[in-house]
């Protein structure tokens, strides 16, 4: 125990003897009673803390929004789609066999896409009707995991249908109920033209969490879709599931090369289908980063006024230190350390608070919504109805270093000014 105490004293004495500028700066940062931070330093710390905290929270929300949106989209949409422009695909099994050599492909499933109208009594609603093979569809999408009520397994020729949760609420439907599906095609007879209409039984209700899908998409069996829309054995295209989403563009390019000899066959991937949406999110993230960085910059440059006032107040101390042998470099380091200390404390507190809020935003936001009876994100307006968060270590590190860098930059001028104080002139008027 005495040996440990002796070592601690040695370390403390070493630091004091070799880094006395740091200890002086630490004293200047606090009040004379050494219990509280001075008011001017406190305001600078609070400014940096709030700026860093806000930047971390906003970037985490933007990251979370992008990740959540991507997850919801890919639970319904395809990683890659192969479709034929102005027509349907005849022999999809042949197309599937052509893709066997590509390593990144996990699964392939056929589908049909048509427009129709749901009708129940006096209520009608336009929807996209997707024909699927349930056994294959579950391999290329996660929609089977989004079933809220009922089952995903559609049976051929039973005319069963899967509807979104918002459609179910609109019509007041539940599993087992029946609803009419009116095709955009028509039947022609000597007495007139009649719409193609078929009654379907609700097999399941899914909820993706995106209004676009929950209110505008229904699924039926592939064979039922081909019968209803008079497609014979044709399909709209192929849905492809990838093993690695980071290789989406490369795999899509290889598939395009594979089908380059097939007329009007187009390969599209989710990054291109929703390119504008994700580009807008990325742009918003950059803009918010710039705006909030300016807030941090303003808070950091408050350090300039803090140090300038400190230099004015401590001129006599500076003069005395110089008469005792302190060099210009030492005086420079004293005030630079003071600014750096403010920056370190502010950055640390900002990172701590920002990280805490970002990791618990899924609890904080619902609490505020319940407390004030409001909803920040309406499902009918926004793509998602919750405020997601995804904290990235790279963002936290970058923000922390940027805040410290701005703090250091802000200390340069006041520190140089302090080092230029003339002892003789200062002490003459004291």
Please explain how this structure is put together.
The model has no long low-confidence stretch (mean pLDDT 79). By secondary structure, the protein is of the alpha+beta class. Helix content is 55%, strand content 19%. Strands 2-3-8-5-7-6 form a 6-stranded mixed beta barrel. The protein has 16 helices and 10 strands. The longest helix has 39 residues, at 275-313. It has 2 domains: 22-70 and 277-428, no CATH class; 79-270, no CATH class.
Summed up:
This protein is of the alpha+beta class. Helices cover 55% and strands 19% of the residues. The protein has a six-stranded mixed barrel with strand order 2-3-8-5-7-6.
Lay out the secondary structure.
Elements: H1 2-18, H2 20-29, H3 39-76, E1 80-84, H4 92-98, E2 105-120, E3 123-132, H5 134-140, E4 147-150, E5 160-164, H6 165-171, E6 178-189, E7 192-206, H7 211-214, E8 217-221, H8 222-228, E9 237-242, H9 248-258, E10 265-269, H10 270-273, H11 275-313, H12 315-323, H13 328-359, H14 361-372, H15 393-419, H16 423-428
């Amino acid at each position: 125990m005495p040996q440990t105490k002796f070592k601690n004293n040695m370390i403390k004495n070493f630091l004091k003897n070799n880094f006395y500028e740091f200890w002086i700066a630490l004293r200047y940062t606090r009040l004379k009673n050494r219990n509280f931070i001075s008011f001017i330093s406190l305001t600078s710390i609070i400014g940096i803390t709030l700026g860093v905290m806000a930047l971390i929270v906003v970037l985490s929300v933007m990251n979370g929004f992008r990740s959540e949106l991507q997850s919801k989209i890919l639970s319904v949409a395809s990683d890659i789609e192969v479709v034929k422009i102005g027509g349907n695909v005849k022999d999809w099994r042949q197309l599937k066999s052509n893709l066997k050599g590509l390593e990144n492909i996990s699964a392939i499933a056929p589908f049909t896409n048509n427009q129709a109208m749901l009708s129940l009594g006096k209520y009608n609603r336009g929807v996209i009707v997707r024909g699927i093979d349930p056994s294959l569809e579950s391999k290329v999408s996660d929609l089977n995991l989004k079933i809220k009520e009922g089952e995903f397994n559609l049976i051929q020729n039973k005319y069963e249908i899967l509807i979104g949760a918002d459609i179910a609420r609109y019509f007041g439907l539940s599993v087992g109920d029946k609803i009419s599906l009116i095709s955009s095609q028509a039947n022609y007879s000597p007495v007139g033209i009649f719409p193609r209409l078929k009654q379907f039984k609700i097999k399941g209700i899914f909820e993706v969490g995106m209004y676009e899908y929950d209110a505008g998409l229904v699924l039926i069996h592939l064979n039922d879709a081909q019968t209803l829309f008079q497609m014979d054995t044709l399909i709209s295209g192929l849905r492809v599931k990838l093993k690695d989403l980071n290789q989406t563009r490369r795999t899509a390019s290889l598939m395009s090369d594979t089908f380059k000899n097939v007329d009007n066959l187009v390969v599209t991937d989710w990054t291109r289908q929703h390119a504008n949406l994700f580009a807008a999110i990325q742009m918003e993230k950059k803009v918010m980063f710039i705006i909030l960085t300016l807030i941090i910059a303003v808070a950091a440059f408050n350090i300039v006024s803090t140090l300038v006032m400190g230099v004015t107040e401590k001129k006599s101390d500076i003069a005395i230190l110089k008469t005792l042998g302190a060099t210009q470099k030492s005086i420079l380091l004293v005030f630079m350390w003071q600014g750096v200390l403010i920056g370190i404390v502010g950055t640390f507190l900002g990172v701590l608070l920002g990280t805490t809020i970002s990791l618990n935003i899924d609890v904080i936001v619902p609490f505020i919504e319940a407390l004030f009876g409001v909803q920040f994100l309406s499902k009918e307006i926004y793509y998602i109805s919750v405020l997601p968060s995804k904290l990235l270590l790279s963002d936290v590190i970058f923000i922390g270093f940027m805040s410290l860098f701005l703090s250091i930059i802000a200390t340069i001028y006041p520190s140089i000014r302090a080092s230029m104080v003339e002892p003789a002139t200062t002490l003459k008027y004291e």
